[in-house]
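Why should sequence recovery work at all? Because a backbone constrains its sequence more than one might expect. Tight turns favour small or flexible residues, buried strands favour hydrophobic ones, and helices have their own preferences. The token representation captures these environments compactly. In the example below, the structure is given first.
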């Protein structure tokens, strides 16, 4: 088994100097925090997002600090827009692309059970409207395309003396390991990223040039996504109330570590509520099972304690009705 990654020392970012880096969904949240940290390390960073104004403001702000950044507006659900995004990133990064971080993501559709019409069907009632799939279009299909384009552009001619392995850091989620009851497309898309990761990681190290692929699986983090009222009021919001968020710095630490450290390939960092840990997500590590079980047991214990305390205080019903948890 590979030696577990340790997170007690900050990552060595020396390798990022002068690298050409593309971060999608980088006008906000995790993408923004990672892009900023990588720009601070001296890389050429292409910040891409569909939020045009926020993207331009951000780049203006970072450029005024001397960082090498550009903004490219891109809706990642358009393949053609992604092609243009990559071409601009390559141009900005002196003819190459070294690191790709697909962070664009949304929570869109709800749980399928919450989307079926309230009224039960009869034999003659009209069929229900299509449920929608936009969560998976952004979080999975678009990431698949980003990954494909990365493989393509990683093969641009590189300086022969430069042995740095181009790499992808997937921003998945713990929802790709334990399910996410508040959105079926979120859950399936994050499991899908994990499937994509498993499917390409062995081939990646044998490709020319060799490519490194790693994945971060964060617990909830305080971003625009988790601040939305519909998120706060969902079952996910309940877990947030009990456990709190994992700090952004730990997500950035893992993403930057994977981007920069040449020894890391095929690995997963679990960003748990209280700590980062190597998920051991391979055949020897039981595909993350043992580490995941340890941390989810902690979550379960804290949730049970929270519920018992609410019951003793007599506000069980008022606390749980707001998260739709009483229907279970
Ligand atoms: N916040 C969390 O708790 C959490 C936990 C685990 C994983 N994640 C993942 O982290 C990633 C970033 O999420 P975040 O929490 O920073 O949310 P966020 O909303 O702050 O950032 C997401 C960014 O993606 C952009 N985006 C959305 N759709 C897009 C599209 N079609 N094309 C281009 N850009 C698009 C948004 O404009 C936004 O700037 C997502 O993939 C999310 O699933 C988040």
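From this structural description, the recovered sequence reads:
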């Amino acid at each position: 088994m590979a030696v577990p990654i340790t997170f007690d020392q900050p990552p060595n970012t020396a390798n990022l100097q002068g690298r050409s880096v593309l971060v999608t969904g980088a006008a906000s949240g995790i993408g923004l925090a990672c892009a900023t940290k990588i720009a601070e390390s001296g890389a050429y960073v292409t910040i891409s997002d569909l939020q045009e104004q926020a993207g331009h403001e951000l780049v203006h702000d970072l450029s005024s600090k001397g960082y090498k950044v550009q903004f490219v507006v891109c809706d990642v659900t358009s393949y053609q827009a992604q092609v243009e995004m990559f071409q601009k990133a390559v141009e900005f990064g002196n003819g190459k692309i070294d690191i790709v971080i697909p962070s664009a993501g949304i929570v869109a559709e709800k749980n399928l059970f919450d989307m079926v019409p309230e009224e039960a069907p009869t034999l003659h009632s009209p069929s229900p409207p299509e449920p929608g799939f936009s969560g998976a279009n952004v979080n999975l299909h678009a990431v698949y395309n980003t990954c494909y384009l990365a493989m393509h552009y990683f093969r641009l001619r590189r300086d022969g003396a430069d042995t740095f392995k181009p790499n992808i850091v997937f921003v998945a989620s713990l929802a790709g390991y334990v399910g996410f009851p508040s959105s079926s497309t979120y859950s399936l898309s994050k499991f899908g990223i994990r499937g994509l990761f498993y499917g390409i990681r062995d081939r990646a190290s044998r490709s020319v040039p060799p490519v490194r692929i790693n994945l971060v699986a964060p617990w909830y983090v305080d971003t625009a996504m988790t601040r939305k009222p519909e998120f706060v009021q969902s079952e996910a919001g309940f877990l947030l109330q009990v456990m709190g968020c994992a700090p952004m710095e730990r997500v950035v630490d893992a993403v930057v570590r994977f981007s920069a450290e040449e020894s890391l390939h095929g690995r997963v960092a679990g960003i748990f509520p209280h700590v980062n840990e190597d998920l051991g997500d391979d055949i020897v590590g039981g595909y993350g099972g043992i580490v995941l079980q340890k941390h989810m047991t902690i979550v379960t214990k804290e949730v049970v304690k929270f519920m018992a305390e609410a019951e003793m205080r007599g506000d069980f019903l008022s606390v749980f009705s707001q998260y739709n948890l009483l229907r279970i």
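A few observations help interpret the result. Strands lie at 20-24, 44-49, 68-73, 99-102, 167-171, 212-218, 268-271, 276-278.
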